[in-house]
Amino acid sequence: MAQKELKVAFFLAWRSLVRGNRSSVLLNILIIGMVFTNMMFFPSLMAGIGVDIKDQIVSYQTSNIMIGPASGEQYITDIETTLAKINRLPGVERATPHYQTGATLQSRGRLIPATIGAIQPREEQYVSPLHTTMIAGSYLGESDVGEAIIGVSLAGSPNIREEDEVRPSLGGVRVGDSIQVEYPNGVEKEYRLKGIFQTGNFEMDNRMIVSWEDMQDVVGEPLTFAPYITVRVKPGYSESFVKNEILRYGVREQVQTTDDLLNKEIGRVMASFSIIGFISMIVSLVIAVVVLFIVVMVKTINNRRQIGILKAIGVEQSVIMNSYGFQVVLLSIAGILVGFLFTGLIVLYMTYYPMVTPEFSATPYVTPLDLAVNGIILFLASVISGYLPAWKVSRENIRQVLQA
Amino acid sequence: MIEIKNLIKTFGRGQAEVKALDGVSLEIEKGEFVGIMGPSGSGKTTLLHLLGLLDDPSSGTIRIDGIDVCRLTDWERTMFRLYKLGYVFQDYALVPELTVKENICLPAMLRRDREEKEYTAATRDILHSIGLWERRDHLQSELSGGQQQRVAIARAIVNTPDILFADEPCANLDTENSRMVLELFRKINRERGQTIVMVSHEDWHTEYFDRVVRLKDGKLVNGAAQAAAEPKAAALKENAMGNPLNYSGMGIGIEADGS
């Protein structure tokens, strides 16, 4: 098709949109915009949940790399040497040990089981943002003994009755309160509550954390062993690179990146999220195709006589078809831009007011690639669904369409 | 210029078959202003549609400038309509989203042998001649019926077609506007030597026609050849007509035998 014909087709399309029924044009743009938003929203929310879960796990549980005991071992032994070796490796920000045990906590007349973790508070700051999540009191000091910090869920609320709680808590303990702890080895110890943290991570917010030094008292011997070590990777380095470095330097323990762990633990969940997101996108796309097909079909049927007139005065079928095609192209572009705007506003809103559940706090996760891919898919679907009815009507017999 | 032989057009099949045209033969010379008249259902519009390449005959031949137009492909017919024919419809058939000026120059915009400057100038001249220059930027909805029909005529002649077809162009107009439109047709016919074939059912329109072709039940009643009418074409300048089938700029060539 020559440039002249395309120019005329575009001219007719533009005039029809600008001077035609404005409410119909705006409605079409709105429909496409909403369809695009729908295509983006659910999958991006699913992705956001996935990202949030991963982020929480990386931040508060595994960091970028988790080193566990070698096969058949219960602990990583001689952690001093192991940590020194790992901390020297390129790409390692910091490695720190973790110890955890179950215990029974007693306070305000409540007796509940909980997990107690031991950390090296100073080192932990390089690996986890736990110290930034204190909502009351303060973070642990390196040599704090007899003091502990606990998660907000474990601390509980004085306004919720024990029988109404989904998960048992200490009923609203406050900073300065004392908590009696009974360890599995029979050690009983009283802790003063130094601070309360809120990470948003379900597991973490139900934990009590004490210092490494304190746990040595409980265990009754120097803690030169640990069930696992977490490693934070420096920005610009990949987890797999650092993992390979660790293995290359002779660390014989089990070394796993976040992805290795996530694939095992929540891989299926993430795959399910992807499938749900994909189905949602396909449904939205089908709706868009059907709506646009109907819109253009109605438009072409209403304009059948005019199409006949245009053919009668010598306008080629391809020019007529392209004029409708251009209309759909312009409507799609405008609709997709409106969709970008809606999606942006939703993301902005949910950044400030995320969807919060005990398990995660989700904000839609949208990347420029997602926007581009969905935009292109919707654009192509719109153009095809718009061209079909235009092609069908524009090739009808002139006499028949003139009599329409 | 136009030569029709034994033209038959039927609609429907079997018992529902209707013969809209039944063996019509007709000749129209260059520069003639021919009126096709007859009662409703006599086949006037069908004949005009066939002559204007808007429909195919069931049988018979139509030759325009020696070309058997029934043998043209769809695309060639479209090009033939664009380069050689002009149409005026009963209900004006303007594009409502285009201004007067845009409506008029639309067919010219598609011609590959015409530059923007040329068709803009042609549109301006036509607008002046039909007295609508002042309303060139108005939309169809802002015009009276008579003005709309004048715009439709202007659109039909902007490409200086060899033949102008008009299908009851005054059907929706009052007498005053009808006369204005007919005067415009007469002016175009006389000044440009424009061949015009017009369908009408108003007897008083005959005063404008050089010849009246009457149809009844799909058959020609009278006016088959120019001999029956007042000769006029000879008085017109030959060079006022479009060149015989010059498809310059279209990239195709159609020989006089239609091949």
UniProtKB/TrEMBL annotation, chain A:
<feature type="transmembrane region" description="Helical">
    <location>
        <begin position="371"/>
        <end position="390"/>
    </location>
</feature>
<dbReference type="InterPro" id="IPR025857">
    <property type="entry name" value="MacB_PCD"/>
</dbReference>
<feature type="domain" description="MacB-like periplasmic core">
    <location>
        <begin position="30"/>
        <end position="246"/>
    </location>
</feature>
<dbReference type="InterPro" id="IPR003838">
    <property type="entry name" value="ABC3_permease_C"/>
</dbReference>
<keyword id="KW-0472">Membrane</keyword>
<dbReference type="GO" id="GO:0044874">
    <property type="term" value="P:lipoprotein localization to outer membrane"/>
</dbReference>
<feature type="transmembrane region" description="Helical">
    <location>
        <begin position="25"/>
        <end position="51"/>
    </location>
</feature>
<keyword id="KW-1133">Transmembrane helix</keyword>
<dbReference type="Pfam" id="PF02687">
    <property type="entry name" value="FtsX"/>
</dbReference>
<dbReference type="InterPro" id="IPR051447">
    <property type="entry name" value="Lipoprotein-release_system"/>
</dbReference>
<protein>
    <submittedName>
        <fullName>Uncharacterized protein</fullName>
    </submittedName>
</protein>
<feature type="domain" description="ABC3 transporter permease C-terminal">
    <location>
        <begin position="279"/>
        <end position="398"/>
    </location>
</feature>
<keyword id="KW-0812">Transmembrane</keyword>
<feature type="transmembrane region" description="Helical">
    <location>
        <begin position="328"/>
        <end position="351"/>
    </location>
</feature>
<dbReference type="Pfam" id="PF12704">
    <property type="entry name" value="MacB_PCD"/>
</dbReference>
<keyword id="KW-1003">Cell membrane</keyword>
<dbReference type="GO" id="GO:0098797">
    <property type="term" value="C:plasma membrane protein complex"/>
</dbReference>
<feature type="transmembrane region" description="Helical">
    <location>
        <begin position="273"/>
        <end position="298"/>
    </location>
</feature>
Automatic annotation (TrEMBL), chain B:
<dbReference type="InterPro" id="IPR003593">
    <property type="entry name" value="AAA+_ATPase"/>
</dbReference>
<dbReference type="GO" id="GO:0005524">
    <property type="term" value="F:ATP binding"/>
</dbReference>
<dbReference type="GO" id="GO:0022857">
    <property type="term" value="F:transmembrane transporter activity"/>
</dbReference>
<dbReference type="InterPro" id="IPR027417">
    <property type="entry name" value="P-loop_NTPase"/>
</dbReference>
<dbReference type="InterPro" id="IPR003439">
    <property type="entry name" value="ABC_transporter-like_ATP-bd"/>
</dbReference>
<dbReference type="GO" id="GO:0098796">
    <property type="term" value="C:membrane protein complex"/>
</dbReference>
<feature type="domain" description="ABC transporter">
    <location>
        <begin position="2"/>
        <end position="242"/>
    </location>
</feature>
<dbReference type="InterPro" id="IPR015854">
    <property type="entry name" value="ABC_transpr_LolD-like"/>
</dbReference>
<dbReference type="GO" id="GO:0016887">
    <property type="term" value="F:ATP hydrolysis activity"/>
</dbReference>
<dbReference type="InterPro" id="IPR017911">
    <property type="entry name" value="MacB-like_ATP-bd"/>
</dbReference>
<protein>
    <submittedName>
        <fullName>Abc transporter, atp-binding protein</fullName>
    </submittedName>
</protein>
<dbReference type="GO" id="GO:0005886">
    <property type="term" value="C:plasma membrane"/>
</dbReference>
<keyword id="KW-0813">Transport</keyword>
<dbReference type="InterPro" id="IPR017871">
    <property type="entry name" value="ABC_transporter-like_CS"/>
</dbReference>
<keyword id="KW-0067">ATP-binding</keyword>
<keyword id="KW-0547">Nucleotide-binding</keyword>
<dbReference type="Pfam" id="PF00005">
    <property type="entry name" value="ABC_tran"/>
</dbReference>
